[in-house]
Amino acid sequence: MENANHLANAKFSPLEYAFWACTLLPFLVTPNYLSLASQIAITALFALSLDLILGYAGIVSLGHAAFFGAGAYTAGLIAKHYWTEPISALFIAGATAGLVGYALSHIVVRFRHLALIMLTLGFGLLLAEAANSASALTGGADGLQGFRVPGVLGFTFDMFGRAAYAYALGVLFVSFLVARRVIHSPFGLALRGIRENPLRMPAIGAPSLAHLRKAYTIAAVMAGIAGAVLTHTTSTVSLETLSFGRSADVLVILILGGAGRLYGGIVGAIIYMVARDQFSGANPQYWYFWIGLLLVAVVMFLPNGILGGLSALRKKPQ
Amino acid sequence: MLSAKNLNKSFGSLVVAQDVALELPKGARHALIGPNGAGKTTLINLLTGLLAADSGQIFLGDAEITSLKPHERVRRGLARTFQINALFPRLTALESVTLAILERERHAHNWWRGLAAHRQAIDEASTILASLNVPLERETRELPYGQQRLLEIALALATRPRVLLLDEPAAGVPKDESAALFRAIESLSGELAILFIEHDMDVVFRFASRIIVMVGGRILVEGTPDEVGRDPRVREVYLGRHARAA
C-alpha cells in the first residue's frame, strides 16, 4: 500500500482512496458496532504513533501507554474542571503528552535494544503508579469520573455512537495525513536512515540523537491525542489508559499489521479489535489464547506483518 | 588541511596510538600502511571522533576539532568511509546519498516539506552516483559488493568534504576492479585531501604521493614512495614480514 519510492511525489494511490472510503462503511453496514469502530479508530491512531518511532526510527517501546494516558488524563481534567469543548482540549492533551515525551526522550534515545525496552517499560510503570497514588487529582483506581463531554462541533455524543465514530475517525484521518507528511519529508528519510544504520548516521553529518528526540516527541503528541479522543468519547478516564497491558497491546497490534508502513497500525487495530470482540464474545475467559495464536502465526509466517505479507504477494507476479 | 599532534590512546595497558602526529595538506593523496593491529583504523577513528583521544590535538584547517562530536566534524568537512560496508541496507543508493546531502544542507530536520520538493538535493545525489557508476534506484542490499564500496565513497563525497579518510576502500573487491576504484578516487577534486589505508602495495605505490608507515601505534616512517620503499626499517618491519607472509 505504501509506495517504496519515497523520493517521488507522495500522492494518494487508488488503493488508499478505497481504504479510506471503506472506513465510512460502519455508518451504513454495522450501525450497531459504531462504539467498537470508535475504539478501533482510537487504537489505530495510537498504533500509528508507535509506528513513527518503532517502524521508522527503530525505537522499541514497551511503555507507549504513558503518552496515551497523559493525553487521556489531561483531556479528562480539562473536561471536569474547565470546559467540555473537545477540539481545543485535543491540542492541549497532545501538547502535554508531547512535553512528557520530550522530557523522557533525552534519556530514552541514548539506549537501544534490551535496555531501551526496560527503560520504556520502567517509565510506563512509574507514570501509571504516579497516577494511581495521586488519587485526589486522577481519581486513583476508580478512575476520573463525573464529567461528560456532550459532543463535538454541534454533534451530540449519543448512545448510537455516530458522532463519536465520526470524531475518532476524523482525528485519525488528520493525524494520518500528518504522519504521512512526516514520512515523506527529509526528516522521515533521516529516521529511516537511523533505523537502517544508526552508527553510520554521524558519519554523514547527522545529529541522530536530535532527530530521535524529535520523532519521540511527535509520536508522544499523537499518542496523547489518541488518549484524549478516548476520554471525550467515553467521558471517563481509567488507569488502564496508562497500563502495561495497553502498551503491550499496541505493540502486538503494530507487529500484527506490519511496522514501518503507516497502514500497519490501522490494519492491525481493525483485526485485533474485531478478533477480540468476536473471541471474547464466544469465549470470554480464554480469548487471549486466540490472540496469542494469531500473533505466533503472523510472526512465524509473515515476519513483516499482515501488510508485509500482502505486499510481498503483490510483488511476486512481476 | 588536517593535522594532528601528540595523539595518544590506550585501552588499559594496550597502547593503540602513541605520540601520533599527522599533516595532510590540501590535495594530499597519502597512504597509511602497516601490519595488522598497527593502529591504522584506530587512528582514523581518533581523527573522526569515533574514539576520544586520551591526549593530543586535532585541527581541521585552522580550527581545533579535538572535542567535537563525530557529526560536527563531518559538518566541518571531515568525511570517512568504513572498512566494512556501513550502509543503509533498505534505502536505495539515491535515497542514501540524498539523505547525506540534506544533512549537509541542514534540511534533514524538516518534517513538513515533501522530499520531492528538494529537487536540487536529489539531482546532486544523482550526479554523484552517476559519476561513480552506481545505479540509483536499487536498494543498497541488492547492489553488488563493488558498487557498495563505491556507494561508501559517494556518501562521503555527498558531505562535501575537505578531507577524506578512506579505510581500505577496496577491501573485498577483486584486484582488477580495485584499480578502477582507485582511479575513481584519484580523479576526485585536487582540492580534496585524501588519506587511505590499503594493504595492496601495488596500489599504494601507484596512487600515493606520500606513504605513512605505522607499527604498534606509532608512526615509523613518513615519506615519498621512493623513500619509504628504500627505508631498511620499513623493509624489516613491514615489507619483510609482508613478503614472508605472501
Largest sheet: spatial strand order of chain B: 6-7-8-3-9-10
Q: What is the element string of chain A, with H for helices and E for strands?
A: HHHHHHHEEHHHHHHH
Major beta-sheet overview of chain B: 6 strands, mixed
Amino-to-carboxy terminus distance of chain A: 16 Å
What is the number of strand segments of chain A? 2
Structural class computed from helices and strand pairing of chain A: mainly alpha
How much helix is in the residues of chain B? Answer: 25-40%
Write down the CATH topology of chain A: ABC transporter involved in vitamin B12 uptake, BtuC
Give the amount of beta strand of chain B, in percent.
15-25%
**What is the third-level CATH name, the topology of one domain in chain B?**
Rossmann fold
CATH 2nd-level architecture of one domain in chain B: 3-Layer(aba) Sandwich
Secondary structure: number of strands of chain B: 10
Shape verdict of chain B = globular
Structural class of chain B: alpha/beta
Note the total helix count of chain B.
9
Number of domains of chain A: 1
Main interface: chain pair and counts: A-B, 33 and 43 residues
In oligomeric terms, what are we looking at?
A: heterodimer
CATH homologous superfamily placement of one domain in chain B: P-loop containing nucleotide triphosphate hydrolases
State mean pLDDT of chain A (0 to 100 scale): 92
